[in-house]
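User: Hi! I'm working on a homework problem where we have to compare a predicted structure to a textbook description. Could you give me the structure for the chain below?
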Amino acid sequence: MDDKYKQQLIDFLKEISAASDEFINSLLWAVNQKKVKKGTVINASGTVDISSRFLCVGIIGLYQEKDGGASLEHLFGASDIVREFHSYYTREPSPYFLLAMSDAVFLQIDRGQEGIQIRRSPELLQVDNGLYQYILQRRTKLNAIRVAGLEKGVEQLKDFLPGAYPLLKLKDLTSFFNCSISTVSRWKRDTKDK
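Assistant: Happy to help. Predicted structure tokens:
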């Protein structure tokens, strides 16, 4: 694992929890660094997502296959925890897939890899609670951006997930902001003139 990404994860875990350096270091043995190219499917639909991923660099989209193609349901950026949550917790196959929208680097730990001693640690509960609160906060903010509508939402998205907007295709914008292709096309044309 690259030292800079390892330090990014350590700093993140310290920010969201009161876990000790010793505990955090005991987790690192089970963490694997993954580098993926733009367009890589990280977890396919119809499979169970058993991994929790700390996104160091890049943008990842959560898509659902629908009539008419893939629909963008959620976006992840640097320092987000990437997983298909329902599948991860229920261990049921997911109707969603995770797609690298850019080249990406993430640190991955598979469910159950924490080790027996760590699972008994009260610090794991602190980290787990911190992660839950962080994920809830990020998802709530992104959902608020989504319901703000195309015009306001795109501006907020640019601040919230820098680098994500240029990666979004016309179809991504229509599904994410729940509007028609003609609305997005008209908005793009009007904002291009400004």
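For your comparison, note the following. Residues 11 and 155 are 28 Å apart (CA to CA). The chain has a mean pLDDT of 91. Good luck with the assignment!
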